[in-house]
Write a sequence for this structure.
DNA sequence: TATGAATATTAATATATTTAGATATTAATG
DNA sequence: CATTAATATCTAAATATATTAATATTCATA
């Protein structure tokens, strides 16, 4: 038995890759924490040139990781799916555990005898 | 307040990028589903040349996404953290919902009028 | 210690992604 | 309808990543 199709795994890979950039992570964390944000707001909070932000937003949009709507001349972005916030949270947990590394291990050892 | 440091977000990005490859997703899903596996077993199940598998395993190892131990001349790999299985599961949910759901699509369409 | 089996590394080329700057589009306003 | 503000797109150059094939390492054992 071969498991799920390769195309599905390619989709997952593309999905992860679309998130895999420091600037895009920052954007997604802002949207997770504060809800929808205009491009201006993101630009201000990330102190980033406008075309750069737009390019990253375009990539996230292309993979339906964020969605956007227009409000007059400004465009407001939001997570396309609340589970994306979960995804970031799990990733943070994995990394946090890793960073606390030895400390956590010692702590656990002490607690469990 | 600026939020968490940029280095942390760069770490997260590197972490996602290290997973973001169809072959590595397949490896991680096998390890999630079946527990630890030797390189031989992975090679057989993925019908992939040995050096290719090793290269992907090396990348996963470099980011502490998998860990390995030797058993004589064979090397056995496992997920470094069970939460990585959660991560894959959440990603699968997001993509499943996307593939089955018209909700997001309609939302996208509405955006363009 | 020479050999074979299992795994890892290296190096080259090809391909994809990022960045930065210039320019284009869109919608509101005077 | 010309102008401005907000956002998006395009292009070329710089970086990073993937692929392939060849070679190296490690360990058990004859």
């Amino acid at each position: 038995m071969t498991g799920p199709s390769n195309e599905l795994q390619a989709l997952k890979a593309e999905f992860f890759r679309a998130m895999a950039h420091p600037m895009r992570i920052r954007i997604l964390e802002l949207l997770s924490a504060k809800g929808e944000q205009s491009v201006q707001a993101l630009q201000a909070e990330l102190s980033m040139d406008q075309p750069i932000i737009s390019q990253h937003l375009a990539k996230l949009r292309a993979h339906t990781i964020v969605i956007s709507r227009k409000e007059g001349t400004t465009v407001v972005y939001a997570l396309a799916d609340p589970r994306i916030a979960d995804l970031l949270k799990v990733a943070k947990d994995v990394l946090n555990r890793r960073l606390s590394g030895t400390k956590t291990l010692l702590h656990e050892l002490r607690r469990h005898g």
